[in-house]
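User: I'm putting together a small comparison set for a docking exercise, and I want a reference complex before I start. The sequence is below, and the ligand is iron/sulfur cluster. Could you produce the 3D structure with the ligand included, as structure tokens?
Assistant: Of course. I'll restate your input first, then give the structure tokens for the complex.
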Amino acid sequence: AYVVADPCIKCKYTDCVEVCPVNCFYEGANFLVIHPDECIDCGACEPVCPTKAIFPETELPEQWKEYKALNADLSTKWPNIAEKKSALPEAEEFKSKDGKRSLLDP
Ligand code: SF4
Ligand code: F3S
């Protein structure tokens, strides 16, 4: 499955949602996750994310390994999102910031 990692936090552009053929994105207050059992590995979401937050799980950068389990867990708790919406107001400011894990709203 594909995994949403750190760069999405406090941005949430949702371009990924618009292209996903199986609607397997789930939405928190300032982050999105992919349900690993629903993702069909089509790869459509990866190139459209303005923050480059999405990776195939096998190519997830070492420092973001924990996001695989986070996507699996949070996707069972958060509501589905099937339509693109506006990015967060602070998205441009946080787009290129690193180490946003502590800012993730549970
Ligand atoms: Fe959806 Fe395809 Fe991205 Fe999986 S890889 S989340 S199926 S767009
Ligand atoms: Fe997040 Fe990128 Fe989607 S910022 S909401 S993973 S388009």
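The chain has three helices and four strands. The pocket of FE3-S4 cluster (ligand 2) is lined by residues 4, 8, 11-16, 32, 49, 51, 53-54 (CB under 6 Å).
User: Thanks, that's exactly what I needed.
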